[in-house]
Every structure is written in C-alpha cells, then in structure tokens.
Amino acid sequence: MVSRDTPLLSVENLETHFDTAVEPVRAVDGASFTVDPGEVVGLVGESGSGKSVTARSIVGLESPGEIVGGSIRFDGTDLTDVDDRIRRQHRGDRIGMVFQDPTATLNPVFDVGEQIAEALRIHDVDRQRLTDFMHVPFVSDRQAWRDHRERAIELMEQVDIADPGSRAGDYPHEFSGGMAQRAMLAIALAGDPDLLIADEPTTALDTTTQATILERLDSLAATGETAVLLVTHDLGIVAERCDRVVVLYGGQVMESGPTEQVLTAPEHPYTRDLLECLIDDAEPQTRLSTIEGTVPDRFDEIGCPFASRCDYATAACRTSDPPIVDPGPDHRVVCGELETVPDAHVMDGANRSTRSEPTDGHAGSDRPPGNERERRVASASRTGDGTAAILAARNLSKRFETTDSWVDRLRGNRRYLDAVEDVSVSVERGQTLGIVGESGSGKSTVVDMLVGLEAPTSGRVELDGNPVGTVADRSAEQLAKVGVVFQHTRGSINPRATVRDVIAEPLFESGWDADRRTDRVDELLELVDLSPTHADRRRHQLSGGQLQRVAIARALALEPAVVVLDEPVSALDVSNRAKILNLLLDLQEQLGLTYVVVSHDLSVVGHVADEVLVMYAGQVMERGPTETLFDRPSHPYTNALLDAIPSVSGDTPAASLPGSVPSAVDPPSGCRFHMRCPLAEPECRSETPSMEAVDDARSRCHFASEIAADSDDDSEPLEHISPDTFS
Amino acid sequence: MISAEYLAYRIGTSTAVLACVSVLTFGMMYLTPGDPARAVLYHQTGQQPSAEAVAAFRAEHGFDDPFPIRYWHWITDVVQRDLGESYRTGRPVSTMIVDALPATIELAIAAMAVALVIAIPTGVASAVYRGTWIDQASQLFALVGVSMPNFWLGYLLIIVFALHLGLAPVSGTGGLSHLVLPAIALGTGMAAIVTRLVRTSMLDVLDAEYVDAARAKGTAERIVVYKHALRNALIPVVTVVGLQFGFVLNGAVVIEIVFQRPGLGMMLVDAIFARDFPVVQGVVLIVAVLFVVTNLLVDLSYRVLDPRVQFGGEHA
Ligand code: SF4
Ligand code: SF4
Fold this sequence. Notes:
heterodimer; A: 727 residues; alpha/beta; eight-stranded mixed β-sheet; globular; B: 316 residues; mainly alpha; MetI-like fold; 12 helices; binds iron/sulfur cluster
C-alpha cells in the first residue's frame, strides 16, 4: 500500500541524454519534482522542453536516450537503480501510461480486445511464455484466454466504450481517435496502477472528446487511488484539471507549485509567456503574444536555459545557474531576476497585445491597433446572398457508396454514406470563413469539394461566380487561385525532398523555369519568416511550426486569392500555434488573402474567422458572424463546442459532450443532434428542424430563438450534461 | 476478409497478364532465326533435311497457317490442357511437365525454407542488437550472400561437401540428401535479401509507438519483439518473399543444371537446344502461370495478415 505522507513519485535531478555524433543532447537536465498519491500534476512546456522524455524516463521508455544521472523514486524504490525486470514489473502493474496519438499506440494487427487482455495477462505470473501470448491452438490455455477477454470487455465498459462486446473484436483502424484513446486508457488501468502518466493524451483529439478523456482522468484521481501525471503544452487543460503544475524548459524545472497560485500569479518569465500565448481572452483577429525565438536543439550547460528567449535576461543569467526562489508555500521558481520581472498582477489584457508586437516577424509591425474584425467587417461589402463571393458552394452534397460486396451490389443492396448534405457556404474577398465540427462532421469533405479533390454528388462550387469542377476540370488560372494547406503536414511532405523542392513543386508543375522558381521560393521563405538556410533542410530537420510555414509557403506559391487551411494549428503547441495564427493574420492583411479555415477547435476558428459554419453529421447546424456565434449561440451544438474549450480564466472546467457523431450511413431521424443534445424534446426525434434565421445567424434547431435569447442574458448557463455522468 | 469483388478483379487482371504471356510465348518461335522446321529436323537427324522433309514437317505441324490461326489452335488446345507433343519424342508436353514439375517445386520450396529459417532469426537479431557485433556479422552475411551468384555457390558446395568431404551426393535426385546442397545454393541469396529486409522492417517497427506502448504495459521484451514487432515486420517481408518465389523458380532452373537435377530447368535447356518448340512453349507458359498465381496468393495473404488493407474503394 502506498503511504500517504511521502510522495508517491519523486524525481530528483533527473538527467536523460541522447547520444549524437557531436555531443549528447541533454533532453532532461536535472529536473526534480514530486507527485503525491491521488494527485493530478501537470507537466507543462513547449515541444522540445523535455516533458515527454521526462515522462517516458519514469516508465523506462527513454530509449534511445539514456538516464545518466539523478533518481526516480517510486514508492520507495529507485527505478534508476534496479534491473530491467523490476522496472518492467512497475510498468503496467503500478504505473500505467497513455500516449499522445491513440491511433499509433495500438498495434494495428491485433484486435483491440486482445490488446487490453494482454495487459491483464501480464499479471498472470505462471503464463509468461510466448505461446501464452500468441493464442496457439492446443498449447495456450483457452480458459485463461477467455477470462482475460471477458475482463477486457469489462474494462472497455468502464472507460465508456459503447457495445464493448462486439467492439472488442474490432481492429484499431476501425476505432475513432477518441475511442482508441479510451482503449489505451483501459490498457493503462488494467493493472490498477497507483500512477497514471498521460503524455499529451488529448492533443490528437476533438475538443469535445478531449473533455471526456480529461474528465475520466479527473474522476480516476478523485477516488484517491490513482495519481495522474498529465503532460501537456496547454495551460488551459492544466488550469482545469491539475492540483499542481510543473513547468519545464530545457529539461529543467522553471517553476512549480499549486496550479491556482502558479497560473494566477506566475513568477517565472517562461510561465508567463506560456500563459500569454493562449487564445483565451485575446481580442479576435489581433496578433497573439508569442515567445520569441524557438526552443533550441541543445542548451548551454551553464546558466538559465531560457536566457536566449527571455525578455529579462541579464549577463548573470547566462554565466551562472539561477537560484531557486520560494515565493510561497510549495511554490518554487528558478530565476535570478525576479526583482526586475514586473509583478504578476500587471499581466492583463493591455500588456498582452502591446508586448507582442516586436517579438515575431516583421510583417505585421505596422498593423494598426484596434479590433481588426470590426474594421474589416465595416469595409467588406456584405451583400448577404453572397453575390460578391470569391469562393462559394451551393447546396453541396456528397454521397459515398459503401456497399462492400459485389454480390450485394448485384442484388441492389446498395449502402450509402451521406458525408455532406446540402451545404451552402460563401466567402467574400479578404474575409475568413471558419468551418468547425468534430471528426465525422463532414467538414473535411466540404474542403475536398471546395478545392476540387472530390466531385460533389449534387450542388456546385463557384469560384469568382463561375461554376468550377474538380481539379482535373479547372483551368490553370483557376487552380492557381486556390491554395491549400492540408492537414497532417508532416505526412504530406516528401521526407526526401528539400524545403526548396517542396515549395517549388507547384511552380514546377505550372512550368516556371529554374531561375524564376529560385527567386520565388526565396520570396516565399521570407514571407513566412523562414531563413534562407531552411531551404536545404528536409522534413525531419524541421520543427512542427517550421513545417507548417513550409506548407503555407507552398500554398502561396502561385499567388492564390483564396487559401484553404485544414486544421492549420492542431498539431502545434501553444507558442507555435500563436505564431502560426499571427503569421496567417499578417499574410491576410499583406496579400489581401481570403481564408477558409477548418478546425475542430472553435477557439482557433473564433480567433481568425469573420463567419463561422458549424457542421455536424454532414449538415450545417449553425452559421453566422463569429461574434454572434460566440456571444449568442443559437444552437445547442455550438454551445457544446464553446463549452468544451479549456480555459485558464474560466471558473468551470470544460464540459464534455458525451457520445460521438452518429454514422452517416444510418443518420438519426429528426434532428441529427438529438441523441447528444441536452435540450432535446420528443419532437426533435421525429421532426427535422430546418435552417431558421436568428438575427444575423441561421440555426438548425427547433428552439433556436429561445436558445439565443437564453444565452443573451448570459446569467444562467444552459443546462448541460454534467461531468458526473462519467464517473 | 477478402471480398468476392476484389477476388474477381484480381483474377481478371491475372488472366489478362497470362493471355499476353501466352501470345509472347507462342510468338517466340517466329523470332528464332531461320526456318524453325528446318532447324528442328536438322537437330533430329543431324544433317540438312531435304526440301520434301521440310515441307512435310511444315504441313504436319500446320506451319503454313497464318500466325493468328496457329495461335488460336494452340491456345484452344492449351486451355483444354493439351500442350501438344514433343517434336523429338512425341510424348505429350503436359505429361513431361507433370513429371518434371514436382522436382522443381520441391527444390524451390526447400530453398525458400532454407532462406526463411536463416533470414528471420538473423534479421530479428540484427535489428534487436543493432550496432553490435551480431548486427555486423549478419550484415556481412547478407552482403556476401547477395553478391554470390547461385551457380557459383552451387559449384563451391559441390566441390567442398560432395567431392572433398563426400557428405552429400554430387548430382541427381533422390532423398533429402540430394536436396540439401541445391537448396542451400539456391536459398542463400534469397536468405541474404530477406535478412536485410527483416532487419529494416524490424527496425522500423521497433521504432513505432505501439511497440513502446506494449512495453509500457509491462510486457516482457521477447513478447514485445516476437509478438508485437515481428508480426508487423513480416507484412512487407511476406510480399517480397512471395514475389521472390517467381525468381526462385528461375534460379531453380539454373541450379538444376549445375546439380544435374532432373526438373523443369533441365527439360527446358534440353528442349531449347533441340529446338523442341512445343516443350519450350509449354515450360515457359507453366512457369509464367506459377509466377502469376503466386503473386495473386501473396497479395491475398498480405490482405489477411494486415487488417488495415481495405478493399474496393470504400470511404470511412
Ligand atoms: S534567470 Fe534570467 S534568463 Fe532565466 S528566466 Fe530568469 S530572468 Fe530570464
Ligand atoms: S432540434 Fe432539438 S435535438 Fe436538435 S439541436 Fe435543437 S433542441 Fe437539440
């Protein structure tokens, strides 16, 4: 049993290094922190801050890195000082781990039930032969096999996987991201661990799903049996879910303490910078604050690791290790210049926007202050019917056939999936249209049709008022007019090509000669704030933020008027997200671009878009000007998306939206949202709502105007399904 | 599982490929220099045939018909499992092939077995102990194995094991002892290729997040390696091994000659020298059929192994 008064986990001066040809990279460089039993501790930092390596070192997955110093005491045992067997016994048995990308952490060739059952089998000490794990007929113990399978199904039920009996036989690729993460959670919980390490568990998920997973972790800790170490880059999540927070940079702890204290009165310049990057209460369409520079590949051995990016750095910061200061009980800050750092309460909105100006890029430095949206909305010719639209979709529908066998096809048993139904959108020159929805909402299919990768089943796409077909039918001029930044940038860039080749590809394809290509690529690199030295790098030598810049440069190569961006920032940490969003706003202003931004995250869309389209199960649920949707949503789904945004300043944690988007093969009757809608009435099940105007927005809900009126007085929040449903 | 639709599609394309091969095979005869009839008769009698003999031979074997008609006759016979008769012996070609085929397939399978038995453990060890002497030794083996021509290795084995040490028979067919040396000679090159492949594929897979996730469960390392990693690593290996089977058959033909083993190879070589066209055509066609069918089976087994492979353009 775990004793209550000593920490469960105590990491001290941990050093994990990665060997390289030059000199070792000190990924973790003397980090120390503790986790008490039943506590939720947030481990925070940008990508490259060493937080993931720290987490992995605890469970012994630091390879190819190596722990070269310090100790990891877990319930009295120093894990750095025991043999592999003991370390392995701690994994799974006492320490469970959940990883970032749930679809990559499940083995693709075994069904999900088996992978959960395996986590149980590990505790069956008498059956550890290879054959016990391979289910060899006549050799493996069938009874044990069946027992584990049954237990696995129970575990799936515990993590809210619907219909676990049949889902256990599904393979990972048949699981959505959220479901796969639940399965990972079931695996991690199989051994009833004392500590659960969750490494960016929700970064790859929809905001609504994120909230359900985090609630699950929360309720786990609430039982007092399991402590959680939550590794994340998002302070919004920390604010809502963690008891204590440890801020990591350069593999060292910069600040640690109770969440409340650290986030409301941050002392360390790095913590403050991280907080300022959040979209949270930033004025829409204004530049976000960013952290100057990027996380370096390696840090100096002496001095404060943050010195190269810190606004308050002095010579002393670089030449000697900063002291540890205790501003309050259990609150520790590692900084030598706290006197010169302004007091925390000065950190308000005004500070936010002024300080941000000189820090990133050159493009927007002459941007006039004030609310950009208002200015542009005023100047834009809003005709409403979209006649001035540069890109428009009229009654787009897309139906995919999913009949799997030709026997069925011959019999006429055809099955269809209506991915998109009757969607009309338009965006005017210089404006930004945001499309938001969970995965399965059909938003990506809309994008595919807009850019001509898919032909609509009915309806049409118009560019500059002229109907256009798919890519194959579009003229060179029409193709050049629309630039695209695809989702999953890392996957869409050829690993062997240099940045120059990647950016020049569209130029090459439209027949530019070599000299012109070189000049244009140089221009584009400058435009997206990449240095000329980046031109010769390849995919693996670029950070996530740099890759995104490459993708943007490539989309801009042929001077498009419209740029379609699919999840442009979902793979980035908060500081890179802020920088990319700033870049997009700058480019829009500088080049007069029109954007279509697609994201599952309403806060991102809300920050950049003039108008937002909320999609669900292939249909538009609500559309309207961004302010209206945020201030006075008139659809319960919009409400749910808004509530799912984690925030540092909010007093209630982000609310989850239970369930998932229904299958488009067999869409629900009546309102598509009725199965998850907290306000659903019996009539919602039978009567399909139509788009109804509520002031300047339109909403597909029977009670649209009531909901708008309700959110207008802003006093009583609408009744939502409470988080307790999940515990 | 594999849908009937996909199966029909694959069988259709395979048939089309075979149709092309059959035309080329049959057309080969026209590409050989000189009058085939004359050449055949010359080989049979050892002297210049008379004009009447040539004319009679041409008439008997329908040489005077136009190509499409002759092809049509031939192919309609072929699909009725009649490959014609040997010019030399008059025996039906199909019977000759049926007699020779088992020996060749036996050799090819034995060689594959040798290759896999060597390659999988070596490749896995090489990946798991990456950068150690084990890895280096296995990579050296792979390099030597790939660069060594199989007929050369065959002669080497004959000289060392059969002639010097007298451990195995030099040539001919018979029990297992006759199979060992040819199988090693043929399998080594394959083993080298597969070792490299297993190594790369394993290294890739060992880097995958799901392997770490399996470790995080507390799974013993050997179970991580042999259950989680190897199963995934074998997916590309199966494809290549299957594709290689066609080449192994080709190699078997060569090795048969080296070891003087009766089989398709010996039969083909004899037939080529004798200008025994029906036999040549028959053997080439059979080898092509084997090649295409193995490819089809490989493709299908690949889909069974890897549940992610989807069929028939579905959308999720
Ligand atoms: S020690 Fe110096 S460089 Fe480091 S955070 Fe404090 S002021 Fe900045
Ligand atoms: S129509 Fe009914 S179910 Fe649909 S969103 Fe409105 S209240 Fe909810």
